[in-house]
Amino acid sequence: MKSRLPYQPFIILGTARTGSTMLWSYLNSHPDILCLRGVYGSTNKINFGKYYGELPEEYHSSELIKLRNERPIEFLENYIWKKYSKPFKAVGFKYFYDHDRHLSNNEELIRYFKSNKAIKFLHLKRENLLATLFSYKRALAQQQWTRADTNYKTSITIQECKEYFQRILYNQKLFDKLFAGRILQISYDNLINSTEQTLTNILDFIEVKALPLTTETIKNKETELLDSITNYTELKNYFKYTDYAKYFNE
Question: How many Å apart are CA 49 and CA 52, to the nearest integer?
Fold first, then answer.
């Protein structure tokens, strides 16, 4: 980093459908926190999010997208972890495991995260990876990331399940190792069911005064995976004697 920042830099780490938008909303309800969306995630835009205020929520500047992709650290230090007129105590953004896919050098940003020890990480994990995969497929099919069609049904191939489970578990372990000592593990279930305590732990971790937080996000109504995945029984039988059997508990 160019110089010591006057606030705590942080990153919400994880993957899609793990509660990151809900957490983003909660954090932005705190007057001392600015949390941006997945600024590295989108292909043809930069998703700063509506709380940024200095540029449009979804910015389509080809020049800025080029800067982000080719010089991601320069982009980060000039547009995200920079000086703000408001005296924030913590500033962060969402970063998913695959958000390096647009970068010319996909190792550069991770090296930066690793070498800058001031950065703290909020690692969101959803215990049931089958539920995460189904939720992702549903959102992708509907192109709707905040409100789900509870009548949606789909099949999932054995290979798709296997590859998804392996990829997510690999990345969870990799990032835990990379940022050991400055990473807070956040359970999706705890965020939903023990919200107040989970948020208190997060605020303590990023060294911001504890205040009651609110969210605009409405949690989607859960559906039984047994009813929503048309080949659920086939998958359950296939993974019965594997480490993934725990995801098939219906």
Answer: 6
Q: How far apart are CA 149 and CA 220, in angstroms?
A: 9
pLDDT single digits (tens) 97-138? 999 999 999 899 999 999 999 999 999 999 999 999 999 999
Q: pLDDT per residue over 84-97, tens digit each?
A: 999 999 999 999 99
The number of helix segments (H) and strand segments (E) in the chain equals 10, 7
Instruction: Find out if CATH 3.40.50.300 is the number for domain 8-247.
Output: yes
Residues near 54 by beta carbon (within 8 Å), at least 6 away in sequence = 48
Rg from Cα positions in the chain: 19
Residue 143 in this model has a pLDDT that exceeds 80: no
How much is the mean pLDDT over the chain?
A: 94
Reported as half-sphere exposure (CB side, CA atoms, 13 A), residue 49 has a value of 21
Copy the structure tokens of residue 52: 């940024």
CA-CA distance, 121 to 77, in Å (whole number)? 17
* DSSP, residue by residue, 211-248: ------PPPPPP--HHHHBTTHHHHHHHTTTSTTGGG-
